[in-house]
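Deliverable D5.2: sample structural annotation.
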Amino acid sequence: MTATRRTLTRADLTPLARATLGRTPTAVTRLRGGSKKGVYRLTFDDDSTAVAYVWSPDEDLWDAGPGDPRDPFSHASGLTLFTAAADRLAAAGVRAPRLLHADPTHTHLPADTAIVEDLPGGTLEDLLADDPAAAPEVLERMASLLDTLHACTGPRFGKVAVVDNGGSSYGGSCAEIVVERALSDLDELPARDPRAAAAHPQLVETIRTLAARVTPRTTPPALIHGELGGDHVRVTPDGELALIDIEGLMYFDLEWEHVFLRQRFGRHYVALSTEGLDEDRLRLYRLAMHLSLVAGPLRLLDVGDFHDPDFMRGIAEHSLERVLELAGE
């Protein structure tokens, strides 16, 4: 397990703020989340703020090291992925924190860093929990954002940073990549839980059966966030919605986005659903997503310093129950 990560201080971040913004912060606060990068609010003497992103191994709770961007599901962390995603979202007309400065030089900190605008206000997840009366209107705006995002397509599937630079991803199709990942996640589980060990043969068969029902797709892949829960949408004071944690932005089957949306938005998903999705892909991707939500949290608990391990264990347990249910269908 990695050592407990050290929170950067005002002294640590002042050289970066002075060099990039010409200002000295009066306070620095680590923000919640950021399991793959450090996220810090910089407050200045006029009460204005900005946010610093720090992509350092010391800030990455997954302890995964650099990922191969040609794998669409590789570790989505890093300045290159962020800047490519920010540029693509801006071109698409989808709001994200505006990039104020990107620094790959490691001059002021031993890591890639960026300074972005601070978006005050809470997350969409918080709003739906705290202000149910506002839910219909804000969900309508979220559905409109999704329409704008998903109307953008790419020439090939894969991370935006790869495809928009003319590159190609591994694998022959989105479904093939999902199946490979699902089988890999599944193979981690028997050693962790006797229920998974007992169900392993049936789960392999289920994955293969579901995959065989998926027919080739001729339409181009859509632009998707990849992990789009309400915690990855900020609601500004003027009511605008902005996507955060955008490094995983990619061109992929729209069904992958929707199985995640359905899982994370629960009863609110009906307002975000869309017609024309492939039911066979949805079934396969739903099982694959739940497998990833078992293996991923357990992997994080093995190597990381997550602040709420019981929460992660709860995700893994709930997802394992869903996996076992889906295996029996």
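Annotation notes: The chain has a mean pLDDT of 92. DSSP finds ten helices and ten strands in the chain.
The annotation will be released with the project's public dataset once the embargo ends.
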